[in-house]
Structure formats: C-alpha cells, structure tokens
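Honest question from a wet-lab person: if I give you the sequences of every part of a complex, can you actually get the arrangement of the whole thing, not just the pieces? Trying it with mine:
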Amino acid sequence: AQKVTQAQTEISVVEKEDVTLDCVYETRDTTYYLFWYKQPPSGELVFLIRRNSFDEQNEISGRYSWNFQKSTSSFNFTITASQVVDSAVYFCALASGSARQLTFGSGTQLTVLP
Amino acid sequence: GAVVSQHPSRVICKSGTSVKIECRSLDFQATTMFWYRQFPKQSLMLMATSNEGSKATYEQGVEKDKFLINHASLTLSTLTVTSAHPEDSSFYICSARAGTVNEKLFFGSGTQLSVL
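Yes, you can. This is the full assembly:
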C-alpha cells in the first residue's frame, strides 16, 4: 500500500515570505516517482515537478525548490518570495507499484496575502 | 508539451440522466488513462484505471455500473455517469499516460458535474 501525507491543510503567508509545504510518503517499492501539482481555483492540475526514487538531488526552478530525503521519506516544496499568484492548492503525489497508479496527498491550500 | 483535452469543462444535468465526459490525448498515444474524482476541498481519489482495448479496473467502492468507462482507442477514453444523482456532483479529472511509467502522466482540465 502507498500513502501520501500532507499534514498542512492550510497555510497563509504574506507576499514575499518564503513558505515550505511538507510531504511525507509511504511505499514498499524501491522504485517510485514523486510529484508536485498545483491546482489553482480554476481546477486544472498544473505539473510542477517529478522526481524518481534514485535521484535525491535537490532541485531549484526559479522561486521553487524541492528537498527530497529518502531517509525521512519526505519530499518538501519551498516557494521563495511568494506571490499572490502562488495561491492555490498544492498536491504531492506518489506513483509506485506495478500499476503505477498515482496516489495523491490531501493537498495544502496556500493563500498568499498581498 | 503533451496535451490532454477533457470535455465538457462544466455540465449541469437533471437527476436520472446520463452524462458522458471525454478525455483525449492530443499528441500522443495513451495506453492507460486514469479517472479521478475530487470533492470540494478534498484530494483526488482514483476511480478507475482504463487500458486501451480492455475493461477498466475500478477502485474499491466505485460502482462500475454507475461509472461506465470506455477506452476504445489510444487517444480517447470516456466516462459515463449513468442515472446521475445529486451525490454524483463532483469534479472529475482524467489523466493519460504515455508509456508504462508515470514519468509521462498528463492531466485533463477537469469536468465540474452538477446534478440537480
């Protein structure tokens, strides 16, 4: 069985603050993929990043950065200098197992206040 | 990049009618498509996995006779909500996978179903 936990249900920050969204996962597979998606109020899912289990290098993309730590089964997402447009629900997801189905966390509602 | 088109984006129907939602992969062949359901302020829950040319695999608790899935071609999967009831009102999202691993998984824009 696989599971993704996003303990933070809602986070509010003021514009320009940094914010970290936590994601903890569980899987018995040694090969798996981790994802982050953004879901703005319009509803569509926007792909942000994919990381495979063999690549623990942290990644930075503009104001976004991700910290993957297998030792703690965590894949945290940091937004630096947040902006109002970052307001959305962010989902962490895991794909493993023979069917390679995607399991989503419960999501974190991020609100960036001007 | 790859695009998945999902239609309609919003549908309102009367209780007892059936609604069909289409999911198309526009520039790649999708051997597998997934259908998710999302209640307000909740996560996406996988409903079923659809492989081209075979019967869909439904998750536990999802009624296969209620949610009919057809994946007749490598670019099209449809979800039909039969005899819709107000409790079926939800946001439905499809995703299409190119290949065998979820490295290449693309999502549709979703369908908001409201059953009156």
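Two things worth pointing out. The longest strand of chain A covers residues 88-96. The interface with chain B takes residues 33, 35, 37, 43-45, 47, 50, 52, 91, 95, 99-107, 109 of chain A (CB under 8 Å).
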